[in-house]
Structure formats: C-alpha cells, structure tokens
C-alpha cells in the first residue's frame, strides 16, 4: 500500500461531503465531465481509481506534477516504435536532445509567418460551410473547418502532399493508442499497427525524396528537420519519422477538437459570442479562454520516479498518475467563483494548463493559439446568424475530448 498522509480537513460544504468515487469510463461522463471534476476537487482531489491509477485534479497539484522530474515513458497498446521514439514519450536526456533539435526549426517567427496561409485556409473552409449550408440547410463545422484546417497547415509546413482524407483515417486510428485500454482487442491492435505502418511508409518515402532533392530556396519544416544539427547531433531517419507522426497526431486531433469545442462553447453562450463579434481585440485572450473552458486534452500522464506529494497525499514511486488538465482549468482557487463560466475577457485565462507544463510543455502551443484566434474570429464575424442545428454528440474517449460533429445553420 502507498504511504499516505491524512489530507487537510475540508471546510464548509465540503466538510460534510463524502469523498467522490469517480469512474472516467462510465457512460455519460464524456458528455460532460466537468461536474465530476468539481466533485473530485471538493472531496477527493487526489483520487486513486480502483484500476490502480491516480487522478490529480487541483490546479496547484497539477502544476507541481507537470513540473516534477517524473517519467512520461510507458508501454502503449501496441508497443509502438513511433511512440517509443517520439519526443512526447521520451524522458531526459533523450527528450532534451530531441526538443532542442526541433526547437531550432519550430520557432515563433516561423509560426507567426503562417498567419497568411491559415487565413487563406480558413476563408476557403468558410466558403465550404456556406456552400454546404445553402445546399443542405446546415453544415458540419468539423467536416468543413475543424478537421481539414490543422492537417492542411501541417502538410504545408512539412512540404508534404495534402491528402488529408487519407491522413485523417490513419490519425484517427492511431489516436486510440493514446487512450487507456485495459484489454485491447486483437482487432484494435491490428488496426493500429496497420495505420502506423502505412503512415511510416509514406513519411519515409517523403524523407528519402527530400534527401535526394536539390536544396529549396525556402526549405519546408521537414527539410529543415533533416538538416537540423546541434553540435554534430542530427536526427536519424527513424527519429525523423517519429517526430513527423507526432506532429500529425498531436497537431491534428488536439487542434481539431479545440476548434470544435470552442465553437460549441460560444454557440451555447450567445452573450460571449456577441462580445467576440464586437471586440476583435479579444481574439487572443478568447483563444486562451476557450482552451481553458473546454480543453481538447483532458489528462496528461506521468509515472512517478520517486514518492510525490499532492494535496497531502504521498503517491508511491512507480505510480501511474493522470494530471487532470481539464479539472485544473476550472479550479475555483485560481479562476474564482466564475471558473465554470465562459468569460472571453477573463484576465488570467492564460493560467490554464491545456498545453501541459514543465519540460513537456507543448511545442505547438503558439500554432494552436494562432489557428484558433484566426479561425474562430473569422467564423463568428462572417456568419452573424450562426447557430447550432442539432444536439452535440461527443466522442467516447477519455484522454481527448471533442464532438463527433458540429451541425450549424448560418
């Protein structure tokens, strides 16, 4: 058994509340997990699930866990070689080395330079929305905007063919390898292995072609990664492939869900939607508030390398701990009594932890903010009668959160 200290006694209403037993896999939780997180923060903020993992839900404890020198390495559903080599699943010093090489080309200047491309792609997507609505009476913002936009941006950055329908089907299968599965079915394992093999083969062929091609005047991101060098250190072909696949998985699904979640939140809060239309100066802060209010990544996993104290409880070494990013983003201790509300002018919206923290803070945070700021701002100002056309059905996933579709009238 873990060596646990007695937590500080709660006060007020929480003093008489029984510790809440939470099952993130229960039916209906994915539809709206936030009331469950609120109960955990109030009564059981460092929660040991019967399956053997822990969930930390308060902002201060989540930040401490993310900043601590614990491990992110763990076996995945398929023992995936891509996961094993990607920066997201590496501990220092391997993570430090990979991040240093990627940071050389994933610069703030390079990201800001994508604004004209993103604006053009958003406007093309909004044209598709308008055509679909004219033809069918409504349009799906996931199909027309949220899913193609991040994939097209990533393809353009990497200098790869923008076959985003092909890429989406593989990326959606691979996303299941990030979900906790007690006993994965043979069919799931086979589907993940097949999708990974197909994506690896395509990326490998592109890398080989770029190595043979003459140096372009303005090299794309993948060409820069091939050439990236730090004190004689370069990325191997397998490492290059792993980082490209990581860009697809992390950059596509998370941004797609972020855009979709954000639009749903705005359409459910018409007063905030009006505020955003009237205040373009709020676009940047609105992106962070949408990230805070309904983040697309609900948890970040750590494996403790030493005993770790959180909220008066000592977690043992070797424990699997889920940092509750979505719960921390609505912690009343940080965001006040309006923590559960959407407020686009929230002064401290950027204190959210949607991009993680510590050494594994998301490298693509600036790109996600830029895509959200441009896409959401242009969408709501182009269609002044934008409205939900049907109920929202949410994906049945635990780690990531997003709607299956966002049907709207314009």
Automatic annotation (TrEMBL):
Keywords: Heme, Iron, Metal-binding, Monooxygenase, Oxidoreductase. InterPro entries: Cyt_P450, Cyt_P450_B, Cyt_P450_CS, Cyt_P450_sf. It comes from the Bacteria. Gene3D superfamilies: Cytochrome P450. SUPFAM superfamilies: Cytochrome P450 (SSF48264). The keyword Metal-binding applies. Belongs to the cytochrome P450 family. This is Cytochrome P450. It comes from Streptomyces varsoviensis.
């Amino acid at each position: 058994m873990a060596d646990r200290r007695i937590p500080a006694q709660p006060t007020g209403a929480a003093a008489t509340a029984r510790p809440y037993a939470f099952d993130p896999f229960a039916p209906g939780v994915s539809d709206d997990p936030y009331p469950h997180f609120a109960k955990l923060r109030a009564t059981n903020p460092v929660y040991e699930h019967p399956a053997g993992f822990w969930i930390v839900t308060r902002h201060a404890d989540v930040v401490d866990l993310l900043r601590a020198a614990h491990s992110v390495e763990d076996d995945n559903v398929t023992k995936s070689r891509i996961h094993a080599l990607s920066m997201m699943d590496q501990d220092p010093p391997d993570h430090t080395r990979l991040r240093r090489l990627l940071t050389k080309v994933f610069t703030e200047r390079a990201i800001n330079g994508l604004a004209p491309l993103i604006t053009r792609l958003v406007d093309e997507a909004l044209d598709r929305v308008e055509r679909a609505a004219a033809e069918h009476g409504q349009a799906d913002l996931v199909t027309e905007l949220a899913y193609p936009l991040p994939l097209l941006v990533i393809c353009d950055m990497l200098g790869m063919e923008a076959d985003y329908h092909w890429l989406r089907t593989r990326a959606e299968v691979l996303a299941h390898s990030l979900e906790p599965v007690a006993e994965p079915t043979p069919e799931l394992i086979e589907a993940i292995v097949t999708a990974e093999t197909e994506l690896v083969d395509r990326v490998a062929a592109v890398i080989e072609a770029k190595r043979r091609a003459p140096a372009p005047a303005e090299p794309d991101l993948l060409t820069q990664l091939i050439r990236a060098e730090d004190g004689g250190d370069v990325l191997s072909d397998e490492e290059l492939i792993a980082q490209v696949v990581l860009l697809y998985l992390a950059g596509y699904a998370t941004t797609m869900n972020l855009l979709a979640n954000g639009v749903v939140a705005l359409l459910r809060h018409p007063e905030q939607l009006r505020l955003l239309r009237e205040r373009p100066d709020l676009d940047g802060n609105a992106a962070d508030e949408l990230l805070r209010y309904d983040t697309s990544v609900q948890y970040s996993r750590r494996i403790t390398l030493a005993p770790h104290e959180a909220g008066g409880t000592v977690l043992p070494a070797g424990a699997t701990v889920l940092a509750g990013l979505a719960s921390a983003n609505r912690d009343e201790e940080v965001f006040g009594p309006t923590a559960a509300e959407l407020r686009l002018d929230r002064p401290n919206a950027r204190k959210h932890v949607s991009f993680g923290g510590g050494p594994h803070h998301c490298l693509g945070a600036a790109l996600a903010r830029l895509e959200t700021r441009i896409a959401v701002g242009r969408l709501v100002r182009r269609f002044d009668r934008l409205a939900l056309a049907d109920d929202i059905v949410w994906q049945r996933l635990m780690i990531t959160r997003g709607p299956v579709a966002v049907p709207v009238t314009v």
